Amino acid sequence: MDHLLKYSNLKRGVLEEAGSSFSLEQLKEHFSTPINSRRALSRVKSLACIIHLLEERDVLNWRNVECLKQLDDLLLNNKIGELVQSYKKLFLEDIEEKLCICGVQTTFQPDSSPMSQRQENQCLTQNNNHVIPDLIEALRNISQRIGKEWPYLARELGIRECHMDRIRNEYPNNFESQAKEALYLWLRREQENASVEILDRALNARHCQRRGIGSFMRRRM
Question: pTM (2 decimals)?
Answer without folding.
Answer: 0.47
